[in-house]
Amino acid sequence: MTTIDYSERIPNNVDLASDRRLQRALESWQPKFLDWWQEMGPALPTQDVYLRTAVDVGREGWAHFGHVALPEYRWGIFLSERNPDRTIAFGDHKGEPVWQQVPGEHRADLQRLIVIQGDTEPASVEQQRQLGMTAPSLYDLRNLFQVNVEEGRHLWAMVYLLHAYFGRAGREEAEQLLMRNSGSDDAPRILGAFNEETPDWLSFYMFTYFTDRDGKYQLGTLKESAFDPLSRTCEFMLKEEAHHMMVGTTGVDRVVTRTAEIMREHDTDDVARHGGVPLEMIQKYINFHYSVSLDLFGGDTSTNVANYYTAGLKGRWMEERRSDDHQLRDAIASIPFIEGDRLIEKEIPALTALNVDLRNEYISDCSNGVKRWNAILADAGIDTKFSLPHVGFNRQVGTFSQHRITPEGKVVPQEEWDARVGDYLPNADDKAHVASLMQPVYEPGKIASWVAPPRSGINGQPFDYEYVHLA
Predict the structure, then answer these.
(1) Least reliable range by pLDDT among 6-10, 156-160, 317-321
(2) Which helix (H) or strand (E) holds 65?
(3) Which domain of life, per UniProt (predicted)?
(4) 7 within a domain of the structure (yes/no)
(5) 402-447 confidence digits (pLDDT tens)
(6) Which structural domain, as residue segments, surrounds residue 373?
(7) Rounded to two decimals, what is the model's pTM?
(8) What's the number of domains the chain is made of?
(9) Exposed/middle/buried for residue 95 (C-beta within 10 Å: 0-12, 13-18, 19+)
(10) CATH of the domain at 162
(11) Which residues, 6+ apart, have CB-to-CB distance to 71 below 8 Å?
(12) Does residue 123 belong to any structural domain of this protein?
């Protein structure tokens, strides 16, 4: 087990003190990070929050729970333990020892991958800045802040790599990670989904279910990287990311549960007038957040991703569990395509279809949530079913971006789309209704009327535990 030294100004398990130049550079970046947190982090004033803090990188017993003042949270640099026998699992360098330094020929590509991942982390904090003002319970408020501080730590994880391995160019990129802001006209975040608003808690639950799940799969591909420090960084980040997806999965569970309760209590589908979120509105939010998150996987064909794979920079999800040759030189894959107004499948080299390979893993995972939510409805005696829209629905990236496709997978003309888009995606009335429900509940053990309480609290604490002390 590799413990984390909290006596240091920057807690870490990478022996930062042995590299004085790197330590000084990161200590110079730290005040800028804290200024960003003060300006762009949670807007709701608090005394302290019941948070988990990493104290070890082992698989068990790695976190400590306790009340912490948010500005005093100890962000740091944590990598999983090094495996001295680890070899590259894929690509042209398959079987060779993994790299502890960045090969010169891959420097630009690795830096770009790290910057894009790093840019998503502070973006979600910025998107969620105002949500504390309308938290449905102290339990939910605590979960929001846990997600926020860990996204901040994930930013630290990428900044460490940039400072430690990419010289002056890396330091400059680390500065830029604090200069861009979600939704900014002048300096937006790199990826589109991270410039969308997260104005309410239904959106937050959907974001942490769908968009953080994309993060899981992106981190999973980087965990396979031949660049070992990146691999070990992402492996530990995945431990923390699991909580974020739990917040989303159980959050949507609780909204669906409460809607079903209101339907049964009042014997009506019209739950809006009784302070609930109608099922068709939940479906629209699913449609939006799922389709926006699909765009994060990039184009359906990509020579860049093929080159990343061949070079050993970025693997497939669960690479070593695959039963092929892990080089894919002659492999073929089938991807969806539009020919005229028909949706068809076409075969292309598997190397250029790796985005679709990863996206398919993600889609399969997302379908498990839909099954959960449908089971809640079935248990309540409600025969309505949620569904994931077609992969081409509402896409802004890739082969489908120039077409209008319904949730059922029908290609339609622009005028038909324009006439019906309010039936597919949250419209102004839907957003206004959800906004009207966003009334804060800060009393321990109490919860807003539009969402059910959780089945259990955090770390064995009851739901009515005082997770957050407000200022």
Answers:
(1) 6-10
(2) strand 63-68
(3) Bacteria
(4) no
(5) 999 999 999 999 999 999 999 999 999 999 999 999 999 999 999 9
(6) 16-470
(7) 0.97
(8) 1
(9) exposed
(10) 1.10.620.20
(11) 34, 37, 38
(12) yes
Element housing 13 (H / E)? none
Q: Please report which confidence band the pLDDT of residue 466 belongs to, taking 50, 70 and 90 as the band edges.
A: very high
Mean pLDDT, the chain, whole residue set:
96
Decide if pLDDT at 50 tops 80.
yes
- Phi then psi for 274, rounded to 5 degrees? -110, 15
Q: Which residue has the tokens 């989303």?
A: 248
- Structural domain includes residue 9: no
Residue 372 corresponds to which tokens in the numbers above? 């959960």
Q: How many of the other CB atoms lie within 10 Å of CB of 380?
A: 15
Binning pLDDT at 50, 70 and 90, where does residue 1 land?
Answer: very low
d(CA 451, CA 436): 14
Instruction: State the number of CA atoms in the 13 A half-sphere of 367 facing the CB.
Output: 9
DSSP string, 312-347: TSS--TTGGG--S-SS-SS-EEEEEEEETTEEEEEE
Name the strand (E) or helix (H) holding 48.
strand 46-54
Q: How confident is the model at residue 6 (pLDDT cuts 50, 70, 90)?
A: confident
Any alpha helices (H) in 189-278, and if so which ranges?
Answer: 201-206, 212-222, 228-266
Does a structural domain hold residue 307? Answer: yes
Q: Which amino acid is at 67?
A: H
CB 203 within 8 A of CB 289: yes
User: What angle separates helix 167-177 from helix 138-165, to the nearest 10 degrees?
Assistant: 160
In whole angstroms, give the CA distance from residue 370 to residue 385. Answer: 9
**Tokens 């809640």 correspond to what residue?**
376
Cα separation, 204 vs 211, in Å, equals 10
CA-nearest of 318, 315, 333, 320 to 225 is 315
For residue 291, with 0-12 CB atoms within 10 Å meaning exposed, 13-18 middle and 19 or more buried, which class applies?
buried
The token duo for 75 is: 């962000």
Kindly state the average pLDDT of the residues 270-292: 98
Distances (CA, A) of 340 to 83, 346, 461: 51, 14, 57
